[in-house]
TrEMBL record:
One of its GO terms (biological process) is adipose tissue development. It holds the Pfam family adh_short. Residues 299-310 have a biased composition (Pro residues). GO terms for cellular component: cytosol. Favors the reduction of estrogens and androgens. Uses preferentially NADH. Pathway: Steroid biosynthesis; estrogen biosynthesis. It comes from Propithecus coquereli. NADP(+) binds at residues 10-38, 66, 160. SUPFAM superfamilies: NAD(P)-binding Rossmann-fold domains. This is Estradiol 17-beta-dehydrogenase. Substrate binds at residue 143. It comes from the Eukaryota. It catalyses: 17beta-estradiol + NAD(+) = estrone + NADH + H(+); 17beta-estradiol + NADP(+) = estrone + NADPH + H(+). Keywords: Cytoplasm, Lipid metabolism, Oxidoreductase.
Length: 310
């Protein structure tokens, strides 16, 4: 039986790491997994976990692949000994947290480069062969942050919104080539994501005003609560990837959790955006005045112009 060749980006930790292990240790031994990492120095724990799970050595291989570098993507592609990739998983991604004005110049372009251009580069490298073979599956790790704006995540959301447009466009075009594109829309997942945020965890607050800092602390409190109540283990999320991978007619979107769907629906139901914005403001900044100039404990510094929460 010919094995399904899967190549996954971003396997040093988190979802990519767990998905690579899950597929490579599948009892059917029907997958050959190319787990790719930006830096192969980080591959040790993946191999240790693979050995602990009794993963057959022939089912897993690691390759260096930095999605910011098209040469690195091309070299990784050339090292796939089967000469084909049946399932491409574009998973590599990085977050950026904090007030927009506090992001370092390089941080914004770096996150867009990894999350958006990096996904495009990877697709550009693998799609032509899939088209020639008239067969292929593409799974992209999406986010609820790609379906709704979240305060203090503007650039990250912009990058994940971009993936929605990218994948939806390709999903319209590619079925006649036998290629199916699916987004795996994740809510909060317990991974190293928060520790690996561009510019470090916690978000930069340098030079921001007192009201923004106060709102940021409310946001952080809200996030902690959402994570406590709703964060999923990566093992749970990887099963959603498997559902998409095995579907005879894959859908464009799969959701790791239904918890945030009412908010996503609110965006669509009121196309003015007002209902969603109000609901999100209530959820995150519960007790804050919603209009500029209302003051309060997190109000503007004396002498500073009033600023409305975003
Ligand atoms: N965790 C969540 O709550 C959550 C929610 C929704 C969506 N997601 C998405 O899930 C995906 C995986 O994130 P995760 O939660 O598993 O976090 P993670 O543990 O931080 O994994 C992110 C992976 O992407 C890799 N990466 C970063 N820059 C790269 C580059 N230039 N080239 C190749 N790989 C690169 C990281 O490698 P290094 O270690 O080398 O940096 C790491 O392996 C991301 O796309 C993220 O946006 C996560």
């Amino acid at each position: 039986m010919e094995r399904t060749v899967v190549l996954i980006t971003g396997c040093s930790s988190g979802i990519g790491w767990h998905l690579a292990l899950r597929l490579a240790s599948d009892p059917s031994r029907s997958f050959k997994v190319y787990a790719t990492l930006r830096d192969l120095k980080a591959q040790g724990p993946l191999w240790e976990a693979a050995r602990a799970r009794g993963c057959h050595p022939d089912c897993l291989e690691t390759l260096q692949l930095d999605v910011r570098d098209s040469d690195s993507v091309a070299v990784a592609r050339s090292r796939v000994t089967e000469g084909r990739v049946d399932v491409l998983v574009c998973n590599a991604g990085r977050g950026l947290l904090g007030p927009l004005e506090a992001h370092a110049a390089g941080a914004v372009s770096s996150v867009l480069d990894v999350n958006v251009a990096g996904t495009v580069r990877t697709l550009q490298a693998f799609l032509p062969d899939m088209k020639r073979r008239r067969s292929g599956r593409v799974l992209v790790t999406g986010s609820m942050g790609g379906l709704m704006g979240l305060p203090f995540n503007a650039v990250y959301c912009a990058s994940k919104f971009a993936l929605e447009g990218l994948c939806e466009s390709l999903a319209v075009l590619l079925p006649p080539f036998g290629i199916h594109v699916s987004l795996i829309e994740c809510g909060p997942v317990r991974t190293a994501f928060q520790d690996k945020l561009e510019g470090g965890p916690g978000g930069a607050l340098d030079g921001t005003d007192a009201q923004t800092r106060h709102l940021f602390s409310l946001y952080q409190r809200h996030c902690e609560q959402v994570f406590r109540e709703a964060a999923q283990d990566p093992e749970e999320v990887t099963e959603v990837f498997l559902t998409a991978l095995r579907a005879p007619r894959p859908a464009l979107r799969y959701f790791s959790t239904e918890r945030f769907l009412p908010l996503a629906r609110l965006r669509l139901d009121d196309s003015s955006g007002c209902s969603y914005v109000a609901a999100m403001q209530r959820a995150v900044f519960a007790d804050e005045p919603a209009e500029a100039g209302a003051g309060g404990p997190g109000g503007p510094e004396p002498g500073a112009p009033p600023a409305a929460p975003q």
